[in-house]
Write a structure and sequence with these properties.
single chain; about 300 residues; alpha+beta; 4-stranded antiparallel β-sheet; 8 helices; 10 strands; about 30% helix
Length: about 300
């Protein structure tokens, strides 16, 4: 039999293999942070678009109500069955008529009262996909604190500056003795803000999960400025400062440390102003009380 010539294929040497691995590792080190930043930027763009829709819905609500601003947290009697027709606010969690009527604590929060102006779209109320899917999986139980109605009401992606804009029954709003003590410390109509391009309405927020209370999640219905009103209903509030220390935002601290603001976009919070424009603001900007209160005349202003 004739012999067949033996051919050999040159393989990689160890040095060549190490060089290739090093190049791949270097490329990954360059590309992965860029991809991570791109994802974060895309998330910021999505939230900014959703926040603009919130600002538009907020304005349309006011125009539909003769200029009256959306209350952040109503007195219980406004949303109770058989409420006084002069003060009654009808709240719905869907467009199915009376079958979608909502009462109680979930109805007192602003979320479902704004929802009709967002087409009842759950993706508009909670931008985070995983959290929204979790809420959507909850049962339909409008009268309990275990259903999706409660979850969306408590933890929308954006908190409302309800102490100083629109009024908040848990912060002295709609309570005559509080107004007697502090004056009209919150605006209630479209024509009241002196500097609408500066007055904050909504911002990205964070708080505890509405059902699994040990978890911190992106989203809460209320945000609070550097001077916060105490939480008693039916009492004259006192105003106390943030617990926030000097220095940058620390996401490891409890959400109330920074008034439940969430600076989740490159160290900044997305903020919707009264005139409808959206800005990313850092912690130093958000310490300025002129962004929170129509009465504030200086960054360190406090209710007196």
């Amino acid at each position: 039999m004739g012999s067949r010539a033996r051919t050999t294929r040159p393989g990689f040497t160890l040095i060549e293999l190490l060089v290739v691995i090093s190049i791949v590792a270097l490329l990954m080190a360059i590309v992965l942070p860029a991809l991570g930043k791109a994802r974060k930027t895309a998330a910021q763009v999505r939230e900014a678009a959703a926040l603009r829709q919130f600002a538009i819905a907020y304005s349309v609500y006011a125009m539909d109500n003769r200029g009256a601003l959306l209350p952040g947290y109503t007195p219980s009697e406004w949303v109770a069955p058989g409420a006084d027709p002069a003060r009654e606010i009808k709240v719905y969690f869907s467009d199915s008529g009376d079958a979608g009527r909502l009462y109680g604590s979930a109805a007192r929060r602003y979320t479902w009262r704004l929802a009709p102006y967002l087409g009842f779209a759950h993706e508009a109320l909670v931008v985070d996909k995983r959290l929204r899917s979790e809420f959507d999986a909850l049962p339909d139980q409008p009268l309990t604190r275990t259903g999706f109605q409660w979850a969306f009401a408590s933890s929308p992606s954006f908190g409302l500056n309800s102490t100083y804009v629109g009024g908040d029954a848990r912060r002295g709003g709609f309570y005559q003795p509080a107004l007697g003590r502090w004056g009209k410390f919150y605006v209630t109509s479209l024509d009241e803000p002196q500097f609408p391009d500066r007055l904050l309405i909504f911002a990205t927020s964070r708080g505890y999960h509405p059902i699994q209370r040990e978890r911190v999640i992106p989203g809460r219905h209320r945000i609070e400025g550097p001077w916060q009103a105490s939480r008693e209903t039916g009492q004259v509030p006192t105003f106390t400062p943030w617990e926030a220390p000097a220095g940058p935002f620390d996401a490891g601290r409890t959400p109330s440390t920074y008034g439940h603001l969430d600076l989740r976009h490159f160290g900044k919070a997305l903020v919707a102003m009264f005139d409808g424009h959206v800005d990313p603001l850092g912690l130093d900007d958000l310490r300025d009380m002129r962004r929170w209160s129509n009465q504030a005349t200086a960054p360190d202003w406090r209710p007196r």
